Backbone:
């Protein structure tokens, strides 16, 4: 049975009712708090289920990447969207970087504050693979 959201225009409270399809539009709705019939139906959020391939396809759209290098806030928003679509936990470093982008810092400013990667000289050296190759 579907759930319908309502707003009472007299007491200003919100409530929901489960009403069958057959009864919807036929029964008189009354507020459970003040018992008046001066109510208005509220339309809730609509959710659409999409496949992972469909979500990832939207993220790979080249038009979505236009202008990101000049707009840190848009880059931060896009990264948050990507994280939510992928559904993986990204860790505190991701949250820090995205938060800084959203506050307007450029990637260059953020990178300047990051510790160097690699060895003490700042040069990246691949891990020793031994004789596995």
Residues:
């Amino acid at each position: 049975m579907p759930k319908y959201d309502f707003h009472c225009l007299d007491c200003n409270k919100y409530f929901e009712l489960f009403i069958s399809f057959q009864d919807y539009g036929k029964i008189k709705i009354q507020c459970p708090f003040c018992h008046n019939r001066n109510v208005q139906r509220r339309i809730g959020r609509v959710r659409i289920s999409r496949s992972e391939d469909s979500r990832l396809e939207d993220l790979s759209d080249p038009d979505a990447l236009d202008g990101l290098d000049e707009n840190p806030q848009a880059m931060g928003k896009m990264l948050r969207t990507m994280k939510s679509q992928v559904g993986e936990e990204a860790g505190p470093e991701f949250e820090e970087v995205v938060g800084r982008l959203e506050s307007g810092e450029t990637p260059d400013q953020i990178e300047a504050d990051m510790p160097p990667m690699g060895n003490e000289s700042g040069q990246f050296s691949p891990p020793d693979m031994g004789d596995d190759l």
